[in-house]
Amino acid sequence: MKEDHQILIEKYFSNSLSNHEQIEFDRLLKNDKEFKDEIELYNSLENHLEIKSQYSSQIDTIKSTVSSAHKQNGSNQKKKTLISIIALIALALLLYFIFF
């Protein structure tokens, strides 16, 4: 990635392009396939990180809920197994949404 492209892309995603930079950005996006591919990759990574963050907080909530349920209900082996299964399912869903 060219350094000037990287600077334009970072400014674009932080909404800090000047008028001149915006014109240059639009021109590159229209005429430079490599630049357009860089934008799409950057956008894809941003979306991936956002999704990962959302599911990470949901997993933390599930872990907290499972932990609270475990403390309230004692150490019954069947409950431990169920909690483990729920945690594994939640983790599997997280991994599925992150990678697919």
Provide an overview of this structure.
It is a single chain. The longest helix is centred in the middle third of the chain and has 41 residues, at 33-73. This protein starts with a helix and ends with a helix. The protein is mainly alpha-helical and 100 residues long. The protein has a domain at 48-100. α2 (19-31) packs across α3 (33-73) and α3 (33-73) runs antiparallel to α4 (77-99). It contains four helices and no strands. The mean pLDDT is 85.
Structure in a nutshell:
By secondary structure, the protein is mainly α. It has helices at residues 3-13, 19-31, 33-73, 77-99.
Write a concise keyword list for the protein shown above.
100 residues, mainly alpha, 4 helices
- Please give the oligomerization state of what you see: single chain
Could you estimate the helical fraction of the residues in percent? over 70%
Label the structural class.
Answer: mainly alpha
Number of strands: 0
Mean pLDDT: 85
- Largest β-sheet summary: none
Number of helices: 4
Inertia-based shape: rod-shaped
Spans of at least 5 consecutive residues whose pLDDT stays below 50 are none
Rg is 22 Å
Task: Give the DSSP E fraction (strand runs of 2 or more residues).
Answer: under 5%
Amino- and carboxy-terminal Cα gap? 26 Å
Order of helices and strands: HHHH
